[in-house]
Amino acid sequence: MRVVPLLYEDVTISFMADQKILEKIIALAKRRGFVYPSSEIYGGYASVYDYGPRGVELKNNVKKAWWKEMVQQRTDIVGLDSAIFMHPKTWEASGHVEGFSDPLVECKKCNHRFRSDHLEELGKTNCPDCSGDLTEEKNFNLLVEAKMGVTDEDKSKAYLRGETCQGIYLNFQNVLNSTRQKIPFGIGQIGKAFRNEITPKNFIFRTREFEQMEMQFFIPPDKKIAKETFAYWKEQRLNWYLNLGIDSKKLRFRAHNEDEKAHYALAAEDIEYDTPFGGWKEFEGVHNRGDWDLSRHSQYSGKKLGYLEPDGTRITPWVIETSAGVDRAILMFLLDAYKEDKDKKRTYLSLHKSLVPVQVAVFPLLGNKPELINKAKEVFDSLAKQGFIVEWDQRGNIGKRYFSQDEIGTPCCVTVDFDTLEKGEVTVRDRDTAIQEKVNLDKLITYLKI
Ligand code: ATP
Q1: Measuring from atom 21 of ligand 1, which residue has the nearest CA?
Q2: Judging by beta carbons within 10 Å of its beta carbon (0-12, 13-18, 19+), is residue 421 exposed, middle or buried?
Q3: Residue 329 confidence class, pLDDT cut points 50, 70, 90
Q4: More confidently predicted of 82 and 278
Q5: CA 355 – ligand 1 centroid, Å
Q6: Most exposed among 46, 92, 216, 310, judged by the fewest C-beta atoms under 10 Å?
Q7: CA 428–ligand 1 middle distance (angstroms)
Q8: Topology at the third CATH level for domain 2-19+358-449
Q9: Average pLDDT, the chain
């Protein structure tokens, strides 16, 4: 394989230097089919988003990376997929009906609503939009209510789950009875959660419908074991982001102050990422929930939820939880991967290879030459058969095709040209360096797998 001078030139784009990074990413996400605002044809639906063709692949890859590491590659964690609807008592027992709230204030002049803890962080005592006076703080419950039942008289209140882990607690005994697990062990789950957020904002960072990847690790009720397990899971979770390419300088842990801990937490630390929209923000939480959830569900259901030690002692296990947001993780990966190559006048996403929505793109050099198209189709088919996620593009000039694959984050583009027909060589171009290499077709798969 030899490096060749640029065979197919990149197109020129103009940079709007003053445009903010998040705005640029939102525009790119829409332009390239990652994320669209929901219900756009009806004028949009505030802070709800849909994942497009590239977004759904990225999202599935993020979930796959989590599931593989947190469930499939471990002997001490099993998976679960519990329903979104649960018996409404679940949310009384969990403390969410009573205590799952954010402090709300409203501007007396423009009626905009804010979380008072967020205003405190900004040092604001008046409305940040119009400087108007603010109302007294009220607690605003975040659970999203639904009505279940066929007729009006039948209908009863239900909740869309506010966190996925409650389904894990309700199934704790089922999992224990149907697997060979013994304490310590964990249950992992990925799924939708819903919260009536007061101020959903910052794209997919804070929305009312989102996905969580949560793992509850059940341990003996012991402070020392809890402390060690907590430290262990902090390290594991931080490494997950680092191993997927996140810049270590942009990640940190922050322990919760006593007054910000959730009602269930004995200890809580957030994995924070340094964002371009207000600096350090929470992307994942590691919590010691003690025996709060299992004890409360035992109390409210009247069923004993616990664990019999080999010596016959009955214990209520404690729980160390890792709770990550799928959408927030996607935002972190996009923020971290977004690169502007000013010399080559291009934008690209340097996403980790295991997360990219497209692994390789195949182009015939010219879209009107059947012999090139046929050969390129052969290359496409052979790569697809090998399990690569391949994209085809024969529109426009090669520079524009590179430009669009760079923005999707495709690590390699393969161009079939006249050298392919004559010498069996394709041109492979690398996303991060924009270097083009000639590669023999019989070495292509090995080359791409490295
Ligand atoms: P915040 O303080 O930002 O409201 P939280 O402390 O309420 O978050 P947790 O209840 O610990 O969040 O939820 C665990 C994870 O779920 C968060 O770290 C985040 O990744 C994700 N998450 C929570 N709320 C939202 C939301 N409204 N939109 C998107 N992701 C969310």
Answers
A1: 325
A2: middle
A3: very high
A4: 82
A5: 22
A6: 310
A7: 41
A8: Rossmann fold (3.40.50)
A9: 92
User: pTM value?
Assistant: 0.91
**Is-contact 189 214, C-beta < 8 A?**
yes
Q: For the chain, what is the radius of gyration of the CA atoms?
A: 26
The token duo for 319 is: 């729980």
Higher pLDDT, 344 or 136: 136
Cβ contact 63:364 at 8 Å: no
Query: Which ligand 1 atom sits closest to the C-alpha of 102?
Result: 4
In the chain, % of residues over pLDDT 70: 96
The ligand 1 atom nearest the CA atom of 287: 11
Nearest ligand 1 atom to the CA of 271 is 18
Q: Enter the tokens of residue 191.
A: 């799924």
User: At residue 182, what are phi and psi to the nearest 5 degrees?
Assistant: -135, 155
Measure 325 CA to ligand 1 centroid, in angstroms. 7
Mean pLDDT of 3-7: 46
Domain boundaries, the chain: 2-19+358-449, 32-100+142-336
Task: Find the 373 Cα to ligand 1 centroid distance in Å.
Answer: 48
Residue 156 Cα to ligand 1 middle (Å)? 28
Best residue among 205, 216, 264, 282 to mutate for probing ligand 1's pocket (most ligand atoms within 8 Å of CB) is 282
- Closest by CA to 204, choosing from 334, 19, 54, is 334
The tokens for 60 are: 């599935």
Residues with a CB atom less than 6 Å from ligand 1:
163, 195, 197, 206-207, 210, 212, 282-285, 323-325, 327-328
Peptide linkage before 184 cis (omega within 30 of 0) = yes
Q: In which band, very low, low, confident or very high, does the pLDDT at 12 lie, cut at 50, 70 and 90? A: very low
- Give the model confidence (pLDDT) of 158-168 as tens digits: 999 999 999 99
In tens, the pLDDT along 44-93 reads: 888 899 999 999 999 999 999 999 999 999 999 999 999 999 999 999 99
pLDDT, residue 4, reads 43
Residue 364 pLDDT: 97
C-alpha of residue 45 to centroid of ligand 1, in Å: 20
Q: How far apart are CA 209 and CA 45, in angstroms?
A: 12
CATH topology of domain 32-100+142-336: BirA Bifunctional Protein; domain 2 (3.30.930)
| Contact between 8 and 417 (Cβ < 8 Å) | no
